[in-house]
Fold each of these.
Amino acid sequence: MHLQLQFLYSLRRLGIKTGLDHTLSLLNHIDNPHKNFLSIHVAGTNGKGSTCLMISSILKAMNLKVGTYTSPHLIKFNERIRVNNFEISDKYICSFLEQNERKIKQIKSTFFETTTAMAFSYFNDQEVDVAVIETGLGGRLDSTNVIKNPLASIITPIAQDHEHFLGSELTQIAGEKAGIIKKNVPVISASQTNEVKKTLSKKAREMDAPIFFEGTDFTW
């Protein structure tokens, strides 16, 4: 396990690459597991992880088998990938990396791209009913945005975030996060500033996606 994690963490030397090509290539290599389960996609700046865990708890209480993919981890890598709150096993991590190391090296897949593919592979093998997926960086070009037809797109409060990747203006950042909004898929958003709300609403209109804002359309 130590050697496999060492290999996985070594992929961080490749830095952060925005774009979906490497993730799609790796997923295609393992027969596109992300197409075999339902999902809920979560983006934003603050509270993404907590939101994912709350949604997962609600779904689990409905007797569904629920996958959860979040980052970063607090103590050990396995925390990132869970099914019904049980962490992915060391055995599965080692097996996935051993089976796909050659492809990972060939396409120079990054740490997050590889981890995303591993999560989707695990959820498929575990036959989850639904997976709750947290974006890693932004939304539009985030590895997790290979999900094409989620049940819902969730957007937590948006603030200044990774400006060197997403842009210096709040509207630019919101535009990148809005990249998870899909055609006809409902969007549920936390309360946002007016400029962010306008950006998200514009994207939702373009995608014919109904959008609901906390404080305007619903309260809790």
Amino acid sequence: ESRSKADEFAILRHAHAAGVPVPAPLWLEPTGSVIGRAFLLSEFCAGDADRQALFARPDNDAVLAQLGSALAQTHGAGLPAERVPETPRDRVETLQEWACDLESLPRDIIAGLDWLDAHAPEPVAPTLVHRDFRTGNFLIAGDRLVAVLDWEFAGVGDPHEDIGWFCAACWRGDNLSREAGGLGERSVFLTAYAKAGGQTAEPERVYFWEVFAHIRWALIAMQQARRAEAGEYPVWELEEAGNRVPGLARDIAEMVTGPVLPSP
């Protein structure tokens, strides 16, 4: 699902021009002739992306407020040129295509895919979406958000996808009660998001994207496990992702058999 470096660079330039806190993109080398693959360079930003350090902090409200504002800025940045919007149905079909390419898919993940297919909401006005907005993908210095990182999945679609991904339990570490990225209260994040211009989040739509997040991550983890079996580097990291699949499958089963909407 990763974009080409040229696409990522173009989206970064678009986001940066709109005032989204991202490292300023400086140069693109798209040919692969320098180091054997395409690359981009951005400005240096000083900060910490250590998930465990952030999870361990007793109070992240200031950071959460800035993250809510940054996501609202992202969704209000306008549509980058030549990007085709993807509806919730399109996104479900992407996961279905991935699933068809995998062997021995756990039945709980199959049930989750069926649930997504039956519950895909109607499209809303599309926005720029990050698609990997989660703890570990932004730089923090003290209580200040420095930059949002890792834009290689970004595209155009339902802004609720980013909210669901950030709030999904699979990205909270051991802080399951901290519904906003394992950092704090969902209400703190969503209040800041709305105050900065983000639309009011619809709980049922966000829940759909939380289920989607678990299934998407489970399928990616299975893909990474397959890459580990093929000897790709770093093997230990790819294997670690694969080891998460049983737990993700259990979470998916619980979510689709008796879903309880998250607190507003």
Amino acid sequence: MGLPIFQVDAFTDKPFAGNPAAVCLLLNGEKSSEWMQQVAMEMNLSETAFLVPRGDGWKLRWFTPAVEVDLCGHATLASAFVLFSQGLAQANEVISFYTQSGLLKASRNGDWIELDFPAEPAWAEEMDPAIFRALGVKPVFAGRNRIDYMVEVETEQEVLTLKPDMGRLAALTQRGVMVTAKATRPGFDFVSRFFGPGIGIDEDPVTGSAHCCLGPYWQGKLNKAEFYAWQASARGGAVKVRLKDDRVFLGGQAAMVLKGELL
């Protein structure tokens, strides 16, 4: 019998939007890192999540087609969605995920799932001007957190029309770079895009983990603790962001696209 595997579109309420992730259930125990990397290459999505039962929760690891990553929001949302939809977690249950970024949690509220993640705030830091040339932007703010670079630009339109030089960005020492601006579209607080060619993802459709940085940043700019954010990739996706102490709560919906067995 094969291993259960699913493809879920995260941070959207309909198929073929948001950010697709594969979720593989390793109900009989963990596989090697090399095997998981090969599966992620085969799935060829921005992330493939692997879930192993662990006591009161699940061990969770994430792989791009090229590398393992320490934190991934949309594949965690997809993982929670699979557990709830397949009856492996009850609707009122708080799911515990044990990861390389510590304990993460997920709970369900109607059609929405909220993820409890650590805040990953950015600090101002001088960046190589080649990064700005590769992005084609003039920054309002530039900095980084422990995972990514972050750049704020003046207008939403600049974010929407970015056409980065992926070859130059692939040389980044961080996982990737997020570019953000205050939103002008009704109902949203800020917009962003995320580029990570160095880890095999030219543009990530919706990046939950980036909002662990963007939330604290815009809290300081807009003096509020709850946001509705739009990631302006071609597929696009909406993220609810809520801050409390040193945690960031990310809300999103998801849609099942495919399920089967990995032989």
